[in-house]
Amino acid sequence: MDINEWWGLVERAREAAGDRADDRDPPDDPLPDALTDVLAALEPARIVDFAVTAYEVTASAFRWPLWNAAYLIEGGCGDDGFMDFRDGLVLLGREVFTRAVADPDSLAALPVVVRMSRGESGWIGYETLEGPVRRAYERTGGTADAFRTAVEAADRGRIRTGEPGGATWDPEDDGLTRRHLPRLAALFLE
């Protein structure tokens, strides 16, 4: 699937979710269902293409600086948490995602991050993009098993990154964090 088409589908879901598209915390978060609705209008093979492209997009965010930003924002962040963080970051849209991968400190400008720094409600992470995508596939008449099989077949042979890219530092070293993520540090460490 063309990356512009892929991000266009995410944007259509964000538009459907309206002003509630930027926070995964509310129990009635409309964005996952909106994404399912948008994808369910596609042919099953296109839904599989969306899933494979989603893996590629989130893999591009598999970077230490972003992981350390997630660690700071979330008060800790392990492997599963960072997968959730990257999936949720995708749901914030192409512009936010691209900027955050290039400059994780840019996340300090997001209202949801500012709220989180104050101990108020808010969340970026999303458990898994696979959920809404699989539900869309099932709406077209497929099964969860058929979805997994189709994605595995379409994704076969792709090389997965073993270690995150970019420079890392100890995220519990406040001095290093202030140097690498000054705007986020000002929110979370002050």
From TrEMBL:
Residues 1-139 form the DUF4240 domain. It holds the Pfam family DUF4240. This is DUF4240 domain-containing protein. It comes from Streptomyces stephensoniae.
